[in-house]
Amino acid sequence: MGSHQLPEIVPEESLEESEVVELPLRDQPVAGMSELITDLTGLKNACAQLAKGTGSIAIDAERASGYKYSQRAYLIQVHRKDGGLHLIDPVPFKLEDFAPLNEILQSCETIIHASTQDLPCMREIGLNPTSLFDTELGARIAGMAKVGLGPLTEELLGFRLAKEHSAVDWSIRPLRQDWLIYAALDVDVLLELRDAVEAKLIKNKKLAWVNEEFAAILASPNPQPKTDRWKKTSGIHKVKRPDQLAIVRELWRVRDEIGREKDIAGGRILSEYAIVAAAATVPKNINELKGISAFTRQPPELLKKWWDAIAIASANPELKIKGPPSDAPPTQMRVWREREPVAYARLTHAKARLKEVAEANSIPVENMASPDLVRKLCWYAPLPDLAQVEAALLKAGARKWQIELIGPTLTEIQFETEPVVIAAEGGEGGEPAQPE
Q1: pTM for this one?
Q2: Could you give the CA distance from residue 382 to residue 363 in angstroms, rounded to a whole number?
């Protein structure tokens, strides 16, 4: 017989230390949920119930990002204490149909998680909150490390959320029941989560800060699409020549036109990998284009559109690639270092010092001072005193709490002339350089 080894004896306290306690799972909304509302009668009944409720209203929206070109809402979830939890399909309704719900929203505080993502599509259907509590932004400013809805719920409320359907196509009809339950859970927790986040903010003396942020979000218009979005094509750093960049530009433009017309996400029409592959190859005719693996299975009518785009690019390789001259600060540190070494020195000191301020206040640097704001303050001629720095920050859109926090630091670095080493520099270390 072979020899037998005795099992290793593990001390009881070691077992306790290594044991991972799994939090309970909430897979059904505690508040219950209505049938999906698809007609005016259902919407009026929901509004009547919500009007009888008390306190804040939690609201969320589901879009079909990655599937549709538009960022419209395909589901609206609303929850209020004593007012029920309601799921609304916004597709069948007209703008004026949401006026009663908007009136209720404007009568109280609205709770949204990551409001800058959902407010544009809510405003599109006539929902315009006038008082906001953003649980994601509040948690971020409170100093919490993980601010996604799931991790935040686990840390503050002590249970897990079922999150199986975060990337589904919400434009599909009929919507599946398990998807609707998932969506209901998102607002089911928000009333509790709002109070837990507020308690953290009060404890850390930051409630006034977030109130300024929430007011600024509500006062801001929906963001407009950025110009020259083709320059952000994934993998564009692999092509350098003007003729190659022109191919990226034209393929992106045609893809965008098709996507807008048919309401299909660009990546489902032609991948960014395919765009860059065509630009790197510079095909001389449609057969060479078809020979690129990413284009082999393209329908003939689309293949012709892609080839026509490449032909336009070949005829106009320099057209609008560089764009008009701009006096805006560059985004790449290398450009600062080479073109404006003294401004570069100011920027390195600003980055280093702001990092210290952020750590001391347990807040992400970008929430305390946006990178664009810091670049603007460091790029132009130095400002001589705190009053002028504060005035510049206010003009750039900084809030009062931000100015009080970063104004002295940004004043102190105004006349630095020698750079300091910073941990990471934008545009360095192999990061792709975008066309200017």
Answers
A1: 0.87
A2: 27
How far apart are the C-alpha atoms of 201 and 233, rounded to whole Å?
39
Is residue 230 within 8 A of residue 249, CB to CB? The reply is yes
Q: How confident is the model over 202-216, as a mean pLDDT?
A: 98
Residue 14 has pLDDT above 60, yes or no: no
Element (H, E) at 60: strand 54-62
What is the structure's pLDDT at 319? 59
Which of the four pLDDT bands, split at 50, 70 and 90, describes residue 195?
A: very high
Is the Cα dihedral 89, 94, 97, 99 positive or negative?
A: positive
Residue 430 has pLDDT above 50, yes or no: no
Q: Which CATH superfamily is domain 333-412 in?
A: HRDC domain (1.10.150.80)
What is the length of the chain?
436
Domain 25-219 and domain 229-315, same fold? Reply is: no
3-class SS of residue 200: helix
CA-closest candidate to residue 103, choices 77, 85, 129, 75? 129
- How far apart CA 51 and CA 160 sit, in angstroms, is 30
| Residue among 142, 147, 145, 127 at smallest CA distance from 213 | 142
Query: Which string of b and e fits 101-134 if b means at least 16 CB within 10 Å?
Result: bbebbeebbbbbbbbeebbbbbebbbbebebbbb
Q: If you write DSSP's letter for every residue of 45-59 in order, what string do you get?
A: HHHHHHHH-EEEEEE
pLDDT tens per residue, range 75-97: 999 999 999 999 999 999 999 99
Domain 25-219: CATH superfamily, name plus number: Ribonuclease H-like superfamily/Ribonuclease H (3.30.420.10)
Q: Which residues does residue 60 pair with via DSSP β-bridges, in sequence order?
A: 77
Is the Cβ–Cβ distance between 93 and 43 less than 8 Å? yes
Which parts of 263-328 fold into alpha helices (H)? 272-281, 286-291, 300-315
Residue 2 has pLDDT above 80, yes or no: no
Tell me, what's the pLDDT at 270? 97
Question: What pLDDT is attached to residue 98?
Answer: 98
**Residues above pLDDT 90, as percent of the chain:** 82
Domain 229-315 falls under CATH 3.40.50.920: no
Q: Which residue has the tokens 């790449």?
A: 332
Instruction: Count other C-beta atoms under 10 Å from residue 192's C-beta.
Output: 14
